Amino acid sequence: MKKKEIYLAGGCFWGVEEAFRRLQGVGEVVSGYTGGRAPNPSYEDVCRGDTGHAEAVRVRFDPALISYEQILHRFFEIHDPTQLNRQGPDWGEQYRSAVFYQGAEQKAVVEKLVARLRELGYKVVTQIAPAGPFYEAEAYHQDFARRTGRGVCHMSVPRFSQQVDGTPVK
What we know:
The chain has five helices and eight strands, in the order βαβαβαβββαββα. By secondary structure, the protein is of the alpha+beta class.
């Protein structure tokens, strides 16, 4: 079966990359930039916050082993989709929560999961936008957490299996 792709922004791309790298069915995770106006941005360009790009990852996966929806579940549980233009200590539009979809089917799945989170009481601010150009980040950003032991900053929170106040979902 053909590999599929998903583009996700959930704060610092080092931690997002690491959270997906170990999932069964995921073949490749690449850090980069997407969702902005400037072609071929550098890390410094994106950090200035004036290109409109988000630090993001491209996840290539085998849909026979892991579904688009399963990847999105993981995404919404490894970052805080209620924080506008920030994740933890990182702030600015480049650290926004965003899903860049390819086609109506992917968009529908994202919208369904966001609606579910809202039903559970989360004030989700995740941007849902069509995928555009994805620019790979500089080589020193790739596999950063694995290579350095740093940048593992995303904790898993089981948002779909419990209410915001801790009451289990039935």
